[in-house]
Structures are given as structure tokens and as C-alpha cells.
Amino acid sequence: MFKTSIRNKLIVLLLLITIVPFGTSIVITYLYTKESLKDEFVQENVNLLYQGKLNLEGYVGELKNLTLSFYNNIDFMNYLRNPSQDDDDYLAKESVKNVILTILYAEKNINRVNIAVEEDNQNVSVSKTSGVVFSPVVKNLYKESYEKAMNNSNFIYIEPMHVLQKDSAVKDKREKKEVIRLHRALIDIPSNKLLGYISLDIAPDQIIDISEKLYVKDKEEFYILSPEGELIFRSNSEVSETEEWVTSVLKSTETSGTMEWEKDSFRGLMMYDKLSESAGGWILVKRIPYTSVFESALSVAKINIMFGVIGLCLVIMATFLVSFKITSPIRVLLQNIKKVEEGNMNVYFDSLGNDEIGILGERFIQMIGKINHLINREYKLELENKTNQLKVLQSQLNPHFLYNSLQSIGTLALKNNVPQVYTLVTHLSKIMRYGMNIDEDLVPLTKEIDFTKAFLLLQKERFGDQFEYSLQFDKEVLTIEVPKMILQPIIENYFKHGFNSSDESIGQLMIMGRKESNQLVITIHDNGKGISENRLNEIYQSFDKEKQKIDTDGTNIGLRNVYFRLKLYFDGRANFHIQNHQDGGLLVILRLPIETGGGMVEGNYYR
């Protein structure tokens, strides 16, 4: 009993599936959390670095577009091609001034614009603190930068950040400012002839603003390198361009990547992403010390371990609670189920609680009560009523002594040459023989038709020309089984209530049978006086009464008998309908489900 008890199995199982996983999780929580958060942290920073790359490329792209805007200005381009001819051309110089001023004020961070015309060494410059100046080119001023721009596939070169004096006459360091200088070679498309160079002095405010959004101060480091390894931006002023990690990043052939670095007094992760060559080919580098990487991992690991220990304790407590408290009412249910298995349906126990198991216990008691009710009041009574109703109906027509007496009368009629009497006695005996066989509940429809025909022949003999009948049944329905003597009560009801022998009109009764889909449809139509609406309602109301109770006046016992027998035999799937026919008389329609099929017989109707 101890080994098979659900309580003991549940305790062992719950302890195994909780202590082992929880204990293991506590051991590996720190390591797993550390690595998972590290990967997540790296991915977030890679995405952030990529977004910064897109922002910088977009900004540099805007600046590049400014240096191309004057290509559509014919006067300006003519000046670049041949400046010596336009020395005295006032309109040409005005055009040059307009172009260079437009570029200067197109972006708020542009402080100075300089155009060095290759032809005749002419130079045009303007700044936000001075007007447009036409002068000779200062030799070797930007020679090295111009050569780098010319040799670049995109004809641009961006110098690293420089510190310039705002005014040479002012020596106060507060007047110094940083600028980034963009040089572009001006090519006469499509001849590839060099026309000159344009240089923009750009305040790094926008670049610094973008950069500061890409790292956390005092916890992370961020740098922008030129393709030559020059530091364009650095968050840590103590880092120089000669450090080994700079060379390592420059040698990388990948456009982006992540590496672990443990040199130059730095221990941590290093991520980089390169801008396209058309945007200057800068390299964005972000360095994150391990202390920052695993700071959140340590906090999360401690929280996970703490909750793991708390959860383990709660699970152990819950295991014993489930095992002892919840399994107790289950045992009560099990004991009562065993009683039901042994045939004892009188089960009862106190409430098992207000939870799901308590509700299950209440429903179990209700279910057993309903089963008892169905067994004692429904199932048994229905079977009893079925047998009793058949016997009551049959007992009206099957006294054994009467059948023997009829045989004697028929024999005497033949001896006295009265064949008509013999025929009538034969029909009557056929009726009696059909009714005497109480072992049959369902009979083929052809037997029921034979019985009905014998009954109607007797009525025909009784009323003569005042009564006519017709039996019409499709041959495919003759073998379908129907409840025995299901038509006789309806026909007898016609003679009792609908047929008037004193009336000069001829009474007519038509009985038809056909198959519709999976149903047998039998219609019984007479030309009698019909039935009043009140009486029809009373009949239908009687169908709703308790089926053991029979009307005291007995006026519709036959119809009730037919209705409840159909209900018992076919479990409510049959239909019994009574109505006044539009041409007069009463119409009764029976719709019975076809339970079994049958073969064909000769003839398709009886008449």
C-alpha cells in the first residue's frame, strides 16, 4: 500500500522534479546569466554602433552633397574652367560669391568655405566672420590633403579634428575652437579634368552629439578613427594613436566585429564598425570594460539565486501540502467510487471543500443521484410501460377463447353454405391471431397492412356502401419494421369520432405510405367531420402529461397510446402529427426513422 499510494508517489515525484532542477539552476544561474547577458549586452551595443554609423554616414553625405550643388551653375563652372578670363567679369564673380555663400550658410556647423581653382592658382574663401575674398592660392597650404582627396576613389578626404585660433591677434585659449576639414577634388565631368578643390571647415558639434549618444560616460569609451589611424574623436583623452588596439582594428578586413582585449591596461570587449569609403571610411570603436559588461549580470545573478532558494523552499512546502491536503479528498472520492463499483449506489460524504476537488465531490454525489433517478424512475418505468401498453392494447383484441369460438363458427358456416359468414369470421380470426402474438414488438410493414386490411374489410361489411377505403404503399417500404398495431388505434378513432353512418354521404378513408429520405411517412386521411381546435389542443396537451396517467374519459387513449409507443420505440426521433385537412376531415401523419431495410415484394400497393 505504501508503494502504490498516490500520496507517497506524489511526494517523491514532486521532490525529484523540483529539488534537482532548482538545485541545479542555483548552481549554474550565475554562469548562464553572465554569458546570456553578455551576449545580449554585446548585441545591443553592436546595434547601437551600427545606428551611429548610419547617422554619421547620413551627416557626411549631406556635407558631400553641398560640395556638389554648384555643378548645375553654368557661370560658376565656367569660372572654374577659365578664371583668368573672368577677372573683370562682375557677373561671374557675383555668381561665385552666391555659390560659396550658399554653401557656407547651408549647414550651421560650416564655419569656412575655401575653393582653390587649379587654373591660374586662384583662391576664393569665405567664413562666417569675414566676407568673400579672392586671392592667389597659398602654396603647399593643403597640398597633402588635396593629394589624398585626388587619390581617393570618391575624391574626398576628411582631416582629423584640428584646433584653430579664432583670431590670430587673440591669444586667449578660450578663443580656440576645434574643426574638422573636408576636402573634395572638383572634376570637370565627363572629361576627368581637375578644376580645383573645395574645403569646408566644419565645427564638430554634430559629430560630437552623435558620438556622445553611442557610449556611457565614465563606464565606456568611444573613438572615431580615420582610415590612417588618426583619432578624429576620443572620449578618453589619455588614449593615443600609437596604442596596439588601434593597429589591430586598422588591420581587420571585416567592416564590423567584436573582440576581447586584455592589453594596454584595458580588460574588456571592443566593438568596431567602419563607415563606407564614400563617407570618409571612418572607423567607430567602442570599448567596454568587463566591470561594466558584467555589472548587470552580477546583479541579475544574485537576484536569480535569491529567488531560486526562496522558490525551492516554497516548492518543498507545496509538495507536502499537495500530498497530504489535496490527496485526502481524492481518497474519499476513491472509496465512494469503489462502493459504486460494488453496486451500492447510496453514497454520501461530507463536503470536500470549496475548491475544484470539492466541486468534483458535489458533482459526483449529484451524478449518482441522477443515475439512481434514471434507473428507478425513467429506465425501469419506460420498459415497464412499453410492455404494459402493448399488453393493454393487445388484451382488447386477443381473448384466447374467442379465437377458438370463431374457428367453430366458421366451420359451421361452411357446413350451412354461408361463405360470407366464413369470410368475415376468417378476417376476424386473422385479427385475433395477429393480436395474440405478444412476443412481437416490431413487425414488417406488410404484416401491419394485412392486419389493417382485415380490420377495414370487417368495417366494410358492417357499413356496406356507406364506407370506402384505400391502401396505397410503395413496394420499397413494405419490409420496413414498424411497431405492431400502430395504425389500428388511429383507424378506430375515425369510426368512433369521425364516421357518421346515419349521414347520406359516403365515408372515405385513405392510408398511404412512402419513403422520404431516411424516414417512412404514413398518412391517414378521412373525410369525416374533423376536430375542433379546442379538442385538438386538448389532445396535444394530453401528450405532455405523465405517460403513466391515462385520461379518465378515455376519449383519446388510442392516440396517446400511439404517441407514447413511438416515443419509447424511437427515442423521440419519430413524429406524430394530427391536423384538420384543407379539403375536410382529419389528417394524421406518422414519420418514423428507418431502422432496417428490406427487400422488394410483388405489388406496390393494396387496394
Q: Can you describe what's shown?
A:
There is one protein chain. The protein is an alpha+beta fold and 607 residues long. 48% of the residues lie in helices and 21% in strands. The chain is built from 15 helices and 19 strands. The chain has helices spanning 6-66, 74-81, 90-104, 143-151, 205-212, 244-251, 290-293, 295-341, 356-395, 400-415, 419-436, 445-463, 488-498, 533-544, 557-570; strands at residues 110-117, 122-127, 130-136, 156-158, 162-165, 176-188, 193-202, 221-225, 231-234, 256-261, 268-274, 283-289, 442-444, 467-473, 481-483, 507-516, 519-526, 575-580, 586-593. Strands 1, 2, 3, 4, 5, 6 and 7 form a 7-stranded antiparallel β-sheet that branches. The protein is elongated and about 160 Å long. Residues 374-596 form the Histidine kinase domain. GO terms for molecular function: kinase activity. It is found in: Cell membrane.
How would you briefly describe this protein structure?
This protein is α+β, with helices and mostly antiparallel strands and 607 residues long. It is 48% helix and 21% strand. The protein is built from 15 helices and 19 strands.
